[in-house]
Every structure is written in C-alpha cells, then in structure tokens.
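Dear Dr. V.,

Thank you for agreeing to look over these. As mentioned in my earlier message, I'm a first-year student in the group and I'm still getting used to reading structure tokens, so any feedback on how I've presented them would be very welcome. I ran two proteins. I've put each sequence directly above its structure. The first is here:
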Amino acid sequence: MSEQAESTHLVTVRSCKYDGRVHRVWEASVERVEGSLIVLEGSFAEEVRHPLLGQILRGTRSTEYYWTDRWYSVFRFREPTGELRNYYCNVNAPARFDSRVLTFIDLDIDLLVAPDFSVRILDEDEFEMNAVRYAYPQEFRARAGRAVEDLLALVAGRAFPFDVSV
C-alpha cells in the first residue's frame, strides 16, 4: 500500500488473543495510512450494551488509530450526533496490515478516557491472568507497562490522537 491511502475502502479488523485465537472481528473503512499509522473509520450498525461503556447507540462512530510500531491502539467514539463519547485504548502488540486485513494481539489492559480526559485503567487483573495462562514473554509484559505509561502521557498532554483539534 502506498504511504498515503488514495481512496477509502473496507478492511477487516481482527482482534486476537496471544494464542492466535480470534477474539473479535469487524469491518471499517481506511481513512489514511501515514508511515506506521493506520486510521480507520467504523460505525455501529446495531445498538450494543457494554458492561463498562453502557449503551452504545446504533450509528455511533469510531475513529480507530493503529500503529505498526506501537504497543497500543486508540478508538475515538462519537455519538450519532457527532459529540465525543469517549476514547477507548487497547494495549496490544503492534498491528499488522496487508491493505485488506488489520490484525493485532490484544494484551487485555484497556484505558477508558472520558470527554473530560479523566482515565480509568481496566483489566489489569485479566492481563496478569493471561500473562500466566499464555506465558507472555517478558518483553510483552514490559512493553505493555510502557504502553500504559505512553498512553497516560498522551492523554495528559492532549497529544495526538487526544488533541481536540482532530
């Protein structure tokens, strides 16, 4: 794929567990590819009830930021009206992208960022449990910890993709 995506096209996103098992699959449109950054745009076709996020209305938009060299991804959710709903950040191994399928290994830790930029770190216990279950290499454990630190610094500094101008 070229450095800059020329046209929007649908891709399949595959969130996998460390053992390769597919955890979730959805489709999104490629908005741009710039160096290691891949930006996708998706929309909820149906209403979803999520234990932490509550009711997600049909038509909620998701701008998804993935990197092929960073250990996290960021989802910016907007209500059907366009209003910022929240950010949801996954700690994951760097994405792999072949222009048709984007795949990443979800390492369980998530950050929920409210519109006021307050942050809740989620699922650290699930990370510890799966680190034992799947025998995460020490490098994965260390990179996951650094990813949380990096995300917290980006949120605190309102740096991309948490800058309100985007």
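The second protein is here, in the same arrangement:
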Amino acid sequence: MSKFSWGLMGYSPENPNNIGHEITTQIENSHERLQLERMPRWVLRSSGLMAPDGVTPHQTGELEQMAEFPDVVFVALPSSDDGEPAYSLIMQSLEKGATVITCEKGALANRFQDLKEASGNFERLGFNATVGGGAKPMEKAKADLRDPDNVKAIHMKPNATLNFISGRLSTDGQEPASPEVAVKEAIEKGLAEPGSHDILSVIHTEAEGDIPKKLAIFLNQSGLLEPNDYIDWHELAFKLTDKQIRTALENPDTHHFISSIYPTDRGEVPDVGRLGGFDVTHGRWRLVGGFIDPRKVQSMQALINLSGTDSCIVISLGPPDSSDGDYPIPGPGAGPGPTVNAMLDDFIHLVRNKKTI
C-alpha cells in the first residue's frame, strides 16, 4: 500500500520542546505503522519554505508554487490572538485538497464556522489537540453531551501551564515551590506562550488569552449550542489585575482557575468566591470562569490535585433534583509528546482509516 505524503508547518530543529520537532521524530520512528512517508515533502518555517530536512531552502521557493500538495498537512505554528497566520495556511491547504491536522487554537477560536464549512464539517480538519492536548476531551465528551437537557454542569481546567504552576505551588503533601520558581520551570519546559517571560506575563497570557479560546472551541464543538450558533471567544474576554494574580499565587490551594458551563434554566451556580475572570450568558448556557476554591463544590474534586501538566474536564449529569454522576476526563494536557499523540490520532481517524491510496 502506498504511504500518505505530508507537509509540516512550524518547526524548530534545535528545540526538542517544539511541536513540529516532535512530529518529525514520532513519524520517523513510527512511519511504517502510521502508513506515512518517513519524511515530510516540505517544511514551512518563519524563515521560509524548506526541504524535508527543515534546514535547506526548498527548490520551489514558495508554497503557492507547489504543483502537488501532500495528502496531510500538520500545522504546529505558535498560537496568536487573531489566528490569522494559521487560518490562512489552513485554508490554503484545504483548497489544495489536503487534510489538515492542527494544534493551533487561534484560528479555530476566531474562525470556527469558516473552517467548519471549508473542511466539510471537519471531515478534513482535525483539531482535538487545541483543547486539553493529549487528553482529547472534546472527542471523549461527545457521548456524555448527547443529551444537553441532562447536563448539570461542565467544569474545566484545560490550561496545562496554569495547572503545572498550581501544582508546584500546592502545599498538599510536598515541598511547595515559590511562584518565581514555579513560573521559571514552566517557561523552561516550554509550557508558556512565546513572549511570556515573568510571573505576571505568563499568568496574564495563559488566563486571558488561552482559556477563553479553549472554552469557545469546546463549546462550539460540543453540540450544546443551537444549530448555526457559535460563540466568539471575545465574548469571554477579561482582564486580571496584577493584585488578583498575586492574591491567587499567594493562596494556591484555594485559588484554582476553573471555567464552568451551567444551564441557565436551573440556577445551579454555586458561590465559590470567584476572583477575576468572566460571567457570560450565551443562549441557554452560563459560562463562568476565574480563580475559585474547588473544594466547595463536590463535582470539582477531580480538578484539585492534577499531576504536572495534566488537564481535566468534569461533566456532571442528571436532572435538577438528583445526580447521574460526575464524569472526569483527565489526561496529559501539554507537552510535545501528548500533543503530537492527539494530532496523530486525528490523522488516523480522518485519513488513514478512511482512505486508500
């Protein structure tokens, strides 16, 4: 059987924490099993279009001049607020007939409906890695969300960077790190967004920029909204004060950044002493997020002691006067390995298991 050809957008050969670097490593090690060619046809970097080694300039010179596009394009660009760089490249790849697998959340958060339509209802666009990384909560939540009328609440800690920092600051059975050390370690592990270099910039970027995007992508893909209704992540935009951030860092056991989705017709929004964040109603759903004490809510218990960069989503089901249970979806939320694992799972689902070449 012929193997699937592929291209790569986003690559740093000298940085093992780079997602593009991890994609090339995993495919090279498992290309026979995956039925992918061992090397990409080309690599697109910020410095230009490169040959398969990611270093030598490609003889074609520009992506637009490609006569033939590969079967699959992996998009591993750094995320941006408007997502336009990734959006343009994803659209170009779709127009060329490729299936796209991405971990870049800016494009999906800003252009969800456009990308859904261009990809044939996501038949040619995989994006499970954009929310929860390797945990793949959007895929795993589908069964529990088939009956929206039975949803009591959804609680989320999808930001692995904040989860990592929270865990390092925790006093629960370990020697806690200082906020300075915890954030420094997060930056060194490649968990922080590019450009974040100190405590305040990391927390501001992750909380204000990452969380609203992920919550919007999750809600738009969840099936909870009415047909043709989509939430714009800017509806969830908020600004933390530096004082709020310092208060949260000084009280890590009682200040976890958690986002929740509640049905508006039930009135079941617990008082958790929220610090900062957002409280927005969209359609029949109330979206609430901020630094809170999860110990006050039984269904949030699975969110308290996450390990390392793990993320978690808890879906609470049942009628208003009783419970059908709380269903956590935990897993590795960040890091090159888990993220690429989610991307390759999307490839297997969308391409390898559906198409013979």
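From my reading of the second output: Residues 199-222 form the longest helix (24 residues). The radius of gyration is 20 Å. Does that match how you would interpret it?

Kind regards,
E.
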